[in-house]
Amino acid sequence: MVKEVAPVLFNVMKKISPVVIVGLLLTALCVVMFISGAKFIQAVSSYAYDAFVRQMSVKKSPGNSLVIVDLDDESLSKYGQWPWPRYLVANMTENLFEAGASVVAFDIVFSEEDRTSPSVIKKDIKRFLDIDMDITGIPDDIANFDNIFAKSLKRRNAILGCVMHSSDKVIDSSEVVSIGRFKSRVLAKASGTTNAVTKYILASESIVMPIALLGNAAQVAFFNSVPDDDGIVRKTPLVWGYGPDRVYPSLALEAVRLHTKAQKIIVEYDTEGIMNVKLRDLEIPVDNIGRITINFRKLRDENRDLISSSFKTVSACDILEGKAKPEDFKDKIVFVGTSAAGLRDLRATPLTQYFPGVEVHATIVDNILSGDMLSEPYVMILIQCLTIIIMGVFLSLFIDRGKAWLSFLLSVAMILFMVKASQIMMSKFNIVFVPVWTVLSILVIYPVLTMMKYWQEEIQKKRVRSMFGTMVSDQVLRYLEDNPDSFSLSGQKAEATIMFSDVAGFTAISENMEPERLSNLLNEYFSPMTKIIMDRGGYVDKYEGDLIMAEWGVPYPMQDHAVQACLAAIEQQEALKELREVLYKKYGCKIHARMGVNSGVVTAGNMGSDKKFQYTVMGDAV
Fold it and tell me: Cys staple from 107: which of 358, 380, 398, 404, with CB 3.0 to 4.6 Å?
């Protein structure tokens, strides 16, 4: 079977242009590199994605479902450095709930006791100074400021932050530490036979939790993001695993759950990983490890070093001083976080290097509630591969057969089309499609094939010029160089006109003349005769002694080849009338030429041996 197929494939390959073969190989290489995910290309792809996001975000204002309470520089200036006494935080929380906030979520981890509490001060003095100190006049229930904060948290829906520490493996159940009220409210649903969902999502080996007193008074959810390799946050996990089959929600996802009064979060997965996250009627697209692609909103510049998004933001000091409007918080999710540079809760995002971490959570919540989350379906990988293949094959064929300037315009048009298609898919359909691989494939294939074709054409032109440079006119030669496919060197049938001419009585002339004078005589005779043949579009096949053989209609097609041959013969006879007297005075002999012209079907091509050959014609007409 192989022996039968191999010759067929070999013959097919011989007929395919080397330009097309190289183009197909380059296309295959680009597909392989895309699937393998070369890192240096991924960096370019990330940069292009960031550019698309910046362009999209200009047109996208945030919704009105949430508010950010900012522990900004003004608040720290008025109430002292962070962390504040917990009674201040409790006061702020009470005011937010009084204003009608649906959920209050802290982008903060309260992992230590409030050291300003009288009870903690008393304990520390005893511990470090060995002094028993009494603090009188303070009721026992407020001697610990954490108690005050815990009471305010219990009033309504409050969420405290925690930090997950990543791990490469799922820890054993015996290693899981009790984490108070931190509940796994995620219900995993498998599609088909598969392992536990924690096999696919990010895993944690330990958690930085709020102190037990506060952790038992509110919901707890993780708030840390996972940046890409270049340190930029483009995606962030909605769920995280801690221990076998224990999955926990992010701060943003838990805020949406409480706001929508949903009891459970459902994570659907199969053998390829996570498919989506569901919350009541909301279906949230995520990647196969449970990360949401953030659809960033437009920025506002407040004439400060920090650039933030356009979410409604209220200073924490305004909440404490009662200056905030209650209607700004009615039935809304409130995130408490900081934009103060000194607290270093800043993230690098596609929009800016200085993006408050709390606004990342706010953006995710706004994405979910607005239903405009970005998605990266698995099918996009297949579409990318098909796009690279289609573009590569089409471009290879076009470069091989088309004009260079048309190939350039086609390449530019392809690139612009892919960029525009990507913009439309992201802005209209919220589908992430970054065509960097396709564009790079075009940028690789076009110059390589263009240089290769140019090199081939130069070789072909040199070959044509070496064969026909002295046999045809410059005009015809340019035609042959520009249209190498218009004739075949390997032999073809063609309708042509052949002309033979020789000098009458040449044998007697040659016997009575010295070789050098005879050579000069023939050169002076051949020169004007040859010029007339070329001017009439003929091909001078050969000189044999005093004979000239010429053809019209080959090696390039000519509709009126017979007419041109006849006119050339007549013009040669007329030119010879004047030339005859000149040659007689110079060489002492009168030249008379005999000419024969015939039209018919001939076989034209390179004739001869494998060492030496010449383009000529043969057949009955000759």
Answer: 358
Distance CA 411, CA 405 (A): 10
Which amino acid would we find at residue 87?
Y
User: E-strand spans in 295-391?
Assistant: 299-301, 307-309, 313-315, 333-337, 346-347, 355-356
- Say if residue 249 is exposed, middle or buried (CB neighbours under 10 Å; 0-12, 13-18, 19+): buried
Please say whether the beta carbons of 548 and 500 come within 8 A.
yes
Query: 262: exposed, middle or buried (C-beta count within 10 Å: 0-12, 13-18, 19+)?
Result: middle
Q: Residue 57 class from Cβ within 10 Å (0-12 exposed, 13-18 middle, 19+ buried)?
A: buried
Cut 0.85: pTM above it: no
pLDDT over threshold 60, residue 113:
yes
Tokens of 538: 């003929």
Cα–Cα–Cα angle for 131, 135, 136, rounded to 5 degrees:
145
User: Residue 345 contacts by C-beta under 8 Å, 6 or more apart in sequence?
Assistant: 107, 337, 338, 339, 356, 357, 358
Cβ atoms within 10 Å, residue 426: 20
- Per-residue pLDDT, 238: 92
Query: Residue 486: which H helix or E strand, with range?
Result: none
Contacts with 233 (C-beta within 8 Å, 6 or more apart), sequence order:
225, 226, 227, 294, 347, 348, 349, 355, 360
Which one is predicted more confidently, 523 or 344? 523
Tokens describing residue 507: 């044998």
Three-state DSSP class for residue 54: helix
Tokens of 18: 């080397």
How far apart are the C-alpha atoms of 379 and 385, rounded to whole Å? Answer: 10
Percent of the chain with pLDDT over 90: 19
Rounded CA separation 71/315 (Å): 6
